[in-house]
Specification:
Number of domains: 1
Oligomer: single chain
Protein name: Outer membrane lipoprotein carrier protein LolA
Organism: Empedobacter falsenii
Order of helices and strands: HEHEEEEEEHEEHEEE
Largest sheet: 12 strands, antiparallel
Strand order of the largest sheet: 1-8-9-10-11-12-2-3-4-5-6-7
Number of helices: 4
Number of strands: 12
InterPro entries: LolA/LolB/LppX, OM_lipoprot_carrier_LolA-like
CATH architecture: Clam
CATH class: Mainly Beta
Keywords: Lipoprotein, Signal
CATH topology: outer membrane lipoprotein receptor (LolB), chain A
Distance between the termini: 50 Å
Pfam families: LolA (PF03548)
Shape: globular
CATH superfamily: Lipoprotein localisation LolA/LolB/LppX
Length: 210
């Protein structure tokens, strides 16, 4: 009985991503998709959103779930404000990562952490319109009835050590990313879902201070 229950829970959790019927975009659809992102992104200066993050690892029975709020100042400043299960802030600004782990502060140069650097670039790019202006990834496109998906596979060896593929999902009618899936070489992955998105609302500059 326990095994049947566990299988049912896993089926329910992955239903949207595994069983959604994906198909390839046509060349016309790809060009229209890019045009939509670029056109709408030019109007965006700030983005705030709630997020739920699922960390899925093969040796764990269930995902590690974290929640918080994202603040983005187009085109370079970003803050991940984790509130559950612990207070944890990560700020991307001025080419560095600033971390506040329950009062313990540290900083890391972005050039020294390719995984965070690329994730930062891609999410900012999804808003700024520079998402597809890169030679660092092989990009393919797919669609479902309710979404459009860009799948990016890194070309650089240093990045391949940490990232197998990044999937960015845009819900129909939206030009900002709603789901980010970061797949590691081991096939463990992190999935982030964005909700309650708000565009072009003033964000206090202090939000991005370390």
């Amino acid at each position: 009985m326990y095994m049947k229950t566990k299988i049912f829970i896993l089926f329910a959790f992955f239903h949207l991503t595994i069983f959604a019927q994906e198909s390839k975009m046509s060349n016309v659809e790809i060009e229209n998709f890019k045009k939509d992102i670029i056109t709408d992104s030019k109007k965006i200066q700030t983005l705030t959103a709630d997020f739920t993050q699922y960390k899925v690892m093969s040796f764990l029975d269930k995902p590690i779930v974290s929640k918080g709020k994202l603040y983005l100042q187009n085109p370079k400043a970003m803050r991940w404000n984790y509130t559950q299960p612990i207070d944890y802030n990560v700020i991307f600004n001025n080419g560095k990562i600033y971390i506040n782990d329950e009062g313990k502060k540290s900083s890391v140069d972005l050039q020294g952490n390719k995984k965070f650097e690329k994730l930062n670039q891609l999410i900012v790019g999804s808003v700024s319109g520079n998402l597809f202006d890169t030679n660092d990834f092989i990009i393919t496109f797919a669609k479902t009835d309710k979404s459009r998906i860009a799948k990016l596979q890194p070309k650089l060896k240093d990045v391949k050590k940490y990232i197998k593929e990044i999937q960015l999902t845009f819900y129909s009618g939206q030009s900002t990313v709603t789901e980010v899936k970061l797949i590691e070489p081991s096939d463990d992955y992190t999935k982030i879902l964005f909700t309650n998105k708000s565009l072009n609302k003033t964000i206090n500059a202090s939000v991005f201070n370390p």
